[in-house]
Amino acid sequence: MLGALLDGLARLGRFADPLAWVVIAAFTAGALARWREHPAARAVTVGAWIAFALFWLSLLHHFAFVQKSIVEGAGTLVAVPASLYVGFLLARGRDSLFVLSRAIAAMGLVFVPFETIPPLAEVLIEAVTRQTEFLMALVGPEPTVVPGTAVPGGEYAAYRNTFLFVDPTGHRITYTILLACTGLGSMAIFGGLIAATEAPLARKARALAVSVPVIYALNLVRNVFIGLGFGTQQFHLYPDLLMTAFGIEDPYKVSYLVADRILAQSLSVVALVGITWLVVRELPELLVVVEDVLFVATGSEYDLRSAMGVGGRTGAMGERADVRADGNG
Question: Checking CA distances to 86, which of 75, 104, 208, 227 falls within 20 to 30 Å?
Fold first, then answer.
């Protein structure tokens, strides 16, 4: 039974790219319909959230069983019912979710072309590889950079994106920069959220300045940390336990699991929370999205804008609401 389920998830994963385009088209259509005040806007956007749930389901096998990522696997699993619940809330009249829906459309228009159009991915991946190579040379050993064909069956095999380490015994260790290693996903999230808000361009520009460049720089540091930690086997900790927990047989991959799947991904969550705080200080309109996410997660309403003393707030049943002079919504 479990084998059949996993096989079904793997088969669904083959449709992830076309599903991504369907999702972006649906969210964009919903945003345009909302802008034109078309009566179909709600139905189209609800349909987009249902398609979004199916898209996350198509990624579950890849993240949980191929990449063996605890953070990404758990996040993908949670995203399926969460997307369906958001669609349900929007159908019931929670209009503030149109802001998040517009943000998803903008995020996808940034991310999906790189995910599905190889020449775009190649330019970005090789640029990040060169910058990671430069930083590695400043702080540690200088591995050889080779095409991805050094990894049998690896993604982006023709790109110059793989760091080759050779230990004293002659064992070869390869660390490959993939699209997920470029920081594009996180930058697309913040870019989409900022684009979806109704705020002056000057404040949007400041919000972009404290998010996108910071994410890009921290991602390069992350690549150096993982590459050198894995390539020089600095995190070979509790190998038997981790090999069993992650279902791997190669003891050399333990350092990679500790450096990336445990340390880097956990610290990335902390960093993104900090960046979010910086962004909402510049663009408090984004708090409506945070409030909606908290409502989906907890079932409780929050008024973060009043709590932070930044003035008007977005109400649950409308995209904008004013706060009266006495401070009560």
Answer: 208
pLDDT tens column, 20-54: 999 999 999 999 999 999 999 999 999 999 999 99
Cα–Cα distance for residue pair 188/182, rounded to 1 Å: 11
Q: What is the pLDDT of residues 180-237, one digit of tens each?
A: 899 999 999 999 999 999 899 999 999 999 999 999 999 999 999 999 999 999 988 8
| CA-to-CA dists, residue 163 to 99, 126, 149, 188, 239, angstroms | 41, 12, 11, 26, 23
Q: What are phi and psi of 315, to 5 degrees?
A: -85, 165
Domain definitions of the chain by residue range: 1-95, 118-329
| Both tokens assigned to 246 | 């992650």
Calculate the alpha carbon distances from 290 to 6, 72, 191, 253, 302 in Å. 33, 20, 15, 37, 9
